[in-house]
What does this fold into?
Amino acid sequence: MTRNYFVTGGAGFIGSNYVHRLVGRGENVTVYDNLSRAGAPKNVAWLEQTFGKDAFQLIVGDVRDADRLTESAKGADVIVHLAGQVAVTTSVLNPRDDFETNALGTFNALEAARLSKKDPIFIYSSTNKVYGGMEDVEIIEEATRWRYRDLVNGTSEDQPLDFHSPYGCSKGTGDQYVRDYARIYGLRSVVFRQSTIYGTRQFGIEDQGWMAWFVIAAVMGQPITIYGDGKQVRDMLWVEDLAAAYDLAVEKIDVVKGRVFNMGGGVRNTISVWTEFAPQLEKLLGEKIEFARGDWRPGDQRVFYADTRRAEKALGWKAKTNLDDGIRMLFEWVKANRDLF
It folds into this structure.
Protein backbone atom coordinates (compact mmCIF):
# COMPACT_ATOMS: atom_id res chain seq x y z
CA MET A 1 0.00 0.00 0.00
CA THR A 2 1.41 3.37 -1.05
CA ARG A 3 1.34 5.99 1.71
CA ASN A 4 1.70 9.76 1.82
CA TYR A 5 4.80 10.55 3.89
CA PHE A 6 5.51 14.02 5.25
CA VAL A 7 9.12 14.33 6.43
CA THR A 8 10.17 17.43 8.34
CA GLY A 9 13.90 17.94 8.07
CA GLY A 10 13.80 15.71 5.02
CA ALA A 11 16.86 17.41 3.51
CA GLY A 12 19.03 16.65 6.56
CA PHE A 13 21.29 13.67 7.12
CA ILE A 14 18.75 11.20 8.49
CA GLY A 15 15.92 12.79 6.54
CA SER A 16 17.51 12.59 3.10
CA ASN A 17 18.52 8.97 3.66
CA TYR A 18 14.99 8.10 4.72
CA VAL A 19 13.44 10.02 1.82
CA HIS A 20 15.77 8.14 -0.54
CA ARG A 21 14.47 4.87 0.90
CA LEU A 22 10.81 5.95 0.65
CA VAL A 23 10.95 7.37 -2.88
CA GLY A 24 12.97 4.37 -4.02
CA ARG A 25 10.12 2.03 -3.13
CA GLY A 26 7.41 4.23 -4.62
CA GLU A 27 5.93 6.10 -1.66
CA ASN A 28 4.46 9.60 -2.07
CA VAL A 29 6.85 11.90 -0.19
CA THR A 30 6.74 15.56 0.81
CA VAL A 31 9.93 17.06 2.22
CA TYR A 32 9.44 20.03 4.55
CA ASP A 33 12.76 21.75 5.31
CA ASN A 34 14.05 25.30 5.71
CA LEU A 35 17.36 24.29 4.06
CA SER A 36 19.31 26.17 6.73
CA ARG A 37 21.97 23.53 7.27
CA ALA A 38 24.97 23.58 4.96
CA GLY A 39 24.43 20.07 3.61
CA ALA A 40 20.68 20.38 3.01
CA PRO A 41 20.77 21.87 -0.53
CA LYS A 42 23.38 19.24 -1.47
CA ASN A 43 21.12 16.46 -0.21
CA VAL A 44 18.15 17.84 -2.16
CA ALA A 45 20.32 17.98 -5.29
CA TRP A 46 21.36 14.36 -4.69
CA LEU A 47 17.74 13.22 -4.36
CA GLU A 48 16.72 15.14 -7.49
CA GLN A 49 19.63 13.76 -9.48
CA THR A 50 18.81 10.24 -8.31
CA PHE A 51 15.05 10.23 -8.85
CA GLY A 52 14.17 13.40 -10.77
CA LYS A 53 12.62 16.62 -9.50
CA ASP A 54 9.07 15.28 -9.78
CA ALA A 55 9.71 12.18 -7.66
CA PHE A 56 8.96 14.03 -4.43
CA GLN A 57 7.59 17.40 -3.34
CA LEU A 58 9.83 19.93 -1.63
CA ILE A 59 8.29 22.59 0.57
CA VAL A 60 10.79 25.16 1.85
CA GLY A 61 9.31 25.94 5.24
CA ASP A 62 10.18 26.27 8.90
CA VAL A 63 8.65 24.19 11.72
CA ARG A 64 8.26 27.41 13.69
CA ASP A 65 5.67 28.53 11.12
CA ALA A 66 2.62 26.76 12.53
CA ASP A 67 0.17 27.78 9.82
CA ARG A 68 2.41 26.75 6.93
CA LEU A 69 3.30 23.48 8.64
CA THR A 70 -0.33 22.61 9.36
CA GLU A 71 -1.40 23.38 5.81
CA SER A 72 1.51 21.45 4.30
CA ALA A 73 0.93 18.30 6.38
CA LYS A 74 -2.80 18.04 5.71
CA GLY A 75 -2.68 15.02 3.40
CA ALA A 76 -0.10 12.97 5.29
CA ASP A 77 -0.66 9.36 6.32
CA VAL A 78 2.69 9.36 8.14
CA ILE A 79 4.50 12.36 9.64
CA VAL A 80 8.18 11.73 10.35
CA HIS A 81 9.38 14.64 12.47
CA LEU A 82 13.15 14.96 12.10
CA ALA A 83 13.56 18.75 11.82
CA GLY A 84 15.36 20.45 14.65
CA GLN A 85 18.37 22.21 16.09
CA VAL A 86 20.84 19.39 16.62
CA ALA A 87 23.87 20.62 18.60
CA VAL A 88 24.27 20.96 22.37
CA THR A 89 26.89 23.69 22.00
CA THR A 90 24.64 25.73 19.71
CA SER A 91 21.80 25.42 22.22
CA VAL A 92 24.02 26.84 24.95
CA LEU A 93 24.94 29.82 22.76
CA ASN A 94 21.39 30.49 21.54
CA PRO A 95 18.85 28.81 23.83
CA ARG A 96 15.86 30.76 22.48
CA ASP A 97 16.41 29.58 18.91
CA ASP A 98 16.95 26.05 20.20
CA PHE A 99 13.69 26.16 22.18
CA GLU A 100 11.64 27.62 19.35
CA THR A 101 12.96 25.12 16.82
CA ASN A 102 12.84 21.96 18.94
CA ALA A 103 10.15 22.45 21.58
CA LEU A 104 7.79 24.81 19.76
CA GLY A 105 8.57 23.22 16.39
CA THR A 106 7.61 19.79 17.70
CA PHE A 107 4.46 21.20 19.29
CA ASN A 108 3.55 22.72 15.91
CA ALA A 109 4.14 19.38 14.18
CA LEU A 110 1.93 17.62 16.74
CA GLU A 111 -0.82 20.17 16.26
CA ALA A 112 -0.56 19.68 12.50
CA ALA A 113 -1.12 15.97 13.10
CA ARG A 114 -3.98 16.55 15.57
CA LEU A 115 -5.77 18.97 13.28
CA SER A 116 -5.40 16.69 10.28
CA LYS A 117 -8.43 14.67 9.32
CA LYS A 118 -6.30 11.65 8.34
CA ASP A 119 -5.24 10.40 11.80
CA PRO A 120 -1.58 10.24 10.73
CA ILE A 121 1.10 8.06 12.27
CA PHE A 122 3.69 10.30 13.97
CA ILE A 123 7.36 9.28 14.34
CA TYR A 124 9.53 11.53 16.51
CA SER A 125 13.31 11.64 16.48
CA SER A 126 14.30 12.23 20.12
CA THR A 127 17.74 11.86 21.70
CA ASN A 128 19.65 10.08 24.44
CA LYS A 129 20.38 13.54 25.85
CA VAL A 130 16.99 13.40 27.61
CA TYR A 131 18.79 11.24 30.20
CA GLY A 132 21.24 14.03 31.02
CA GLY A 133 24.71 13.37 32.39
CA MET A 134 23.57 10.19 34.18
CA GLU A 135 25.74 11.06 37.18
CA ASP A 136 23.84 8.50 39.27
CA VAL A 137 25.07 5.64 37.08
CA GLU A 138 28.42 4.22 38.12
CA ILE A 139 31.08 4.02 35.42
CA ILE A 140 34.56 2.53 35.29
CA GLU A 141 37.59 3.98 33.50
CA GLU A 142 39.62 1.57 31.41
CA ALA A 143 42.71 2.10 29.27
CA THR A 144 40.88 3.27 26.15
CA ARG A 145 37.29 3.84 27.28
CA TRP A 146 34.74 4.38 29.99
CA ARG A 147 32.11 1.71 30.59
CA TYR A 148 29.04 1.19 32.73
CA ARG A 149 29.75 -0.79 35.87
CA ASP A 150 26.35 -2.49 36.08
CA LEU A 151 24.35 -1.71 32.93
CA VAL A 152 25.60 -4.70 30.97
CA ASN A 153 23.09 -4.19 28.15
CA GLY A 154 23.25 -0.38 28.18
CA THR A 155 20.77 2.31 29.19
CA SER A 156 17.13 1.26 29.12
CA GLU A 157 14.02 3.38 28.75
CA ASP A 158 13.55 3.09 32.54
CA GLN A 159 16.51 5.41 33.17
CA PRO A 160 15.13 8.59 34.84
CA LEU A 161 14.81 11.61 32.59
CA ASP A 162 17.15 14.47 33.44
CA PHE A 163 17.11 17.19 30.80
CA HIS A 164 20.63 18.66 30.86
CA SER A 165 21.55 21.60 28.55
CA PRO A 166 19.07 23.69 26.61
CA TYR A 167 19.19 21.06 23.85
CA GLY A 168 18.27 18.31 26.31
CA CYS A 169 15.40 20.46 27.60
CA SER A 170 14.02 21.34 24.17
CA LYS A 171 14.24 17.83 22.75
CA GLY A 172 12.94 16.38 26.01
CA THR A 173 9.98 18.76 25.88
CA GLY A 174 9.13 17.45 22.44
CA ASP A 175 9.66 13.88 23.62
CA GLN A 176 7.13 14.26 26.43
CA TYR A 177 4.61 16.16 24.29
CA VAL A 178 4.66 13.36 21.72
CA ARG A 179 4.02 10.79 24.44
CA ASP A 180 1.18 12.82 25.91
CA TYR A 181 -0.51 13.48 22.56
CA ALA A 182 -0.81 9.69 22.30
CA ARG A 183 -2.47 9.57 25.74
CA ILE A 184 -4.69 12.63 25.49
CA TYR A 185 -5.59 12.76 21.80
CA GLY A 186 -5.00 9.17 20.70
CA LEU A 187 -2.26 10.20 18.30
CA ARG A 188 -0.55 7.13 16.86
CA SER A 189 2.95 8.22 17.80
CA VAL A 190 6.30 6.55 18.48
CA VAL A 191 9.31 8.20 20.15
CA PHE A 192 12.81 7.05 19.25
CA ARG A 193 15.46 8.22 21.74
CA GLN A 194 18.35 8.00 19.35
CA SER A 195 21.97 7.42 20.19
CA THR A 196 24.77 8.29 17.73
CA ILE A 197 23.55 7.87 14.15
CA TYR A 198 26.16 7.84 11.39
CA GLY A 199 26.39 7.17 7.67
CA THR A 200 26.69 8.67 4.22
CA ARG A 201 25.21 12.11 3.44
CA GLN A 202 26.26 13.22 6.94
CA PHE A 203 27.90 16.63 6.73
CA GLY A 204 29.27 16.46 10.26
CA ILE A 205 30.61 19.55 11.99
CA GLU A 206 32.64 19.92 15.17
CA ASP A 207 29.49 20.45 17.26
CA GLN A 208 27.45 17.57 15.90
CA GLY A 209 27.97 14.31 14.03
CA TRP A 210 31.35 13.61 15.60
CA MET A 211 32.38 10.53 13.64
CA ALA A 212 31.56 12.07 10.27
CA TRP A 213 33.31 15.28 11.34
CA PHE A 214 36.51 13.47 12.29
CA VAL A 215 36.50 11.58 8.99
CA ILE A 216 35.86 14.75 6.97
CA ALA A 217 38.52 16.71 8.87
CA ALA A 218 41.09 13.92 8.48
CA VAL A 219 40.47 13.49 4.76
CA MET A 220 40.41 17.25 4.08
CA GLY A 221 43.38 18.07 6.33
CA GLN A 222 41.36 20.27 8.69
CA PRO A 223 42.29 20.77 12.38
CA ILE A 224 40.79 18.35 14.92
CA THR A 225 40.14 19.14 18.58
CA ILE A 226 39.29 16.41 21.09
CA TYR A 227 37.09 17.66 23.94
CA GLY A 228 37.36 15.78 27.22
CA ASP A 229 39.65 12.76 27.45
CA GLY A 230 38.63 11.07 24.20
CA LYS A 231 37.52 7.96 26.09
CA GLN A 232 33.82 8.86 25.89
CA VAL A 233 31.93 5.82 24.61
CA ARG A 234 29.04 5.86 22.15
CA ASP A 235 27.07 3.17 20.38
CA MET A 236 26.99 3.81 16.67
CA LEU A 237 23.91 3.06 14.55
CA TRP A 238 24.14 3.07 10.76
CA VAL A 239 21.48 5.34 9.28
CA GLU A 240 19.86 2.62 7.16
CA ASP A 241 19.34 0.50 10.27
CA LEU A 242 17.54 3.44 11.88
CA ALA A 243 15.40 3.83 8.77
CA ALA A 244 14.43 0.17 9.03
CA ALA A 245 13.20 0.83 12.59
CA TYR A 246 11.05 3.73 11.34
CA ASP A 247 9.50 1.42 8.74
CA LEU A 248 8.78 -1.27 11.30
CA ALA A 249 7.15 1.26 13.62
CA VAL A 250 4.81 2.31 10.82
CA GLU A 251 3.99 -1.30 9.92
CA LYS A 252 3.38 -2.28 13.58
CA ILE A 253 1.81 0.97 14.75
CA ASP A 254 -1.17 -0.75 16.38
CA VAL A 255 1.27 -2.56 18.69
CA VAL A 256 3.78 0.22 19.37
CA LYS A 257 1.70 3.43 19.34
CA GLY A 258 2.32 5.63 22.37
CA ARG A 259 5.59 3.88 23.20
CA VAL A 260 9.19 5.04 23.61
CA PHE A 261 12.23 3.16 22.36
CA ASN A 262 15.93 3.65 22.91
CA MET A 263 17.51 3.35 19.49
CA GLY A 264 21.22 2.80 18.97
CA GLY A 265 23.85 0.36 17.89
CA GLY A 266 23.86 -1.29 21.31
CA VAL A 267 26.76 -2.91 23.15
CA ARG A 268 28.03 -4.65 20.01
CA ASN A 269 28.69 -1.36 18.22
CA THR A 270 30.36 0.75 20.91
CA ILE A 271 33.55 2.74 20.41
CA SER A 272 35.34 5.53 22.25
CA VAL A 273 35.32 8.80 20.36
CA TRP A 274 39.08 9.10 19.95
CA THR A 275 41.27 6.59 21.80
CA GLU A 276 39.63 3.69 19.93
CA PHE A 277 38.40 5.45 16.82
CA ALA A 278 41.63 7.29 15.94
CA PRO A 279 43.67 4.11 15.23
CA GLN A 280 40.98 2.89 12.80
CA LEU A 281 40.83 6.27 11.08
CA GLU A 282 44.62 6.50 10.84
CA LYS A 283 44.75 3.03 9.27
CA LEU A 284 42.21 4.02 6.63
CA LEU A 285 43.96 7.34 6.03
CA GLY A 286 47.42 5.81 5.94
CA GLU A 287 48.99 8.43 8.20
CA LYS A 288 49.05 9.75 11.77
CA ILE A 289 46.50 12.41 12.69
CA GLU A 290 47.51 15.52 14.63
CA PHE A 291 44.97 16.89 17.09
CA ALA A 292 44.51 19.47 19.83
CA ARG A 293 42.76 19.06 23.18
CA GLY A 294 39.92 21.07 24.73
CA ASP A 295 37.89 21.04 27.95
CA TRP A 296 34.84 18.84 28.51
CA ARG A 297 31.68 20.22 26.94
CA PRO A 298 28.39 20.66 28.86
CA GLY A 299 26.18 17.58 29.06
CA ASP A 300 28.82 15.34 27.47
CA GLN A 301 28.10 11.85 28.80
CA ARG A 302 31.25 9.83 29.47
CA VAL A 303 29.31 6.75 28.47
CA PHE A 304 26.14 6.17 26.54
CA TYR A 305 25.04 3.04 24.81
CA ALA A 306 21.44 2.07 24.42
CA ASP A 307 19.73 -1.05 25.66
CA THR A 308 17.78 -1.83 22.50
CA ARG A 309 16.03 -4.98 23.73
CA ARG A 310 12.63 -3.28 23.96
CA ALA A 311 12.80 -2.22 20.30
CA GLU A 312 14.11 -5.63 19.28
CA LYS A 313 11.20 -7.39 20.98
CA ALA A 314 8.40 -5.02 19.96
CA LEU A 315 9.54 -4.29 16.41
CA GLY A 316 11.45 -7.43 15.51
CA TRP A 317 14.38 -5.11 14.77
CA LYS A 318 18.15 -5.47 15.09
CA ALA A 319 21.08 -3.31 14.05
CA LYS A 320 22.57 -5.14 11.07
CA THR A 321 25.55 -2.99 10.06
CA ASN A 322 28.83 -3.93 11.73
CA LEU A 323 30.69 -0.90 13.08
CA ASP A 324 33.94 -1.67 11.26
CA ASP A 325 32.05 -1.93 7.96
CA GLY A 326 30.17 1.29 8.69
CA ILE A 327 33.35 3.23 9.43
CA ARG A 328 34.90 2.00 6.19
CA MET A 329 31.80 2.91 4.15
CA LEU A 330 31.67 6.39 5.72
CA PHE A 331 35.37 6.96 5.03
CA GLU A 332 35.06 5.80 1.42
CA TRP A 333 32.05 8.07 0.85
CA VAL A 334 33.88 11.13 2.20
CA LYS A 335 37.00 10.31 0.18
CA ALA A 336 34.97 9.86 -3.02
CA ASN A 337 33.05 13.12 -2.47
CA ARG A 338 35.75 15.62 -1.52
CA ASP A 339 34.08 18.21 -3.74
CA LEU A 340 31.10 18.30 -1.35
CA PHE A 341 33.30 19.53 1.51
Observations:
- The chain has one domain: 4-340.
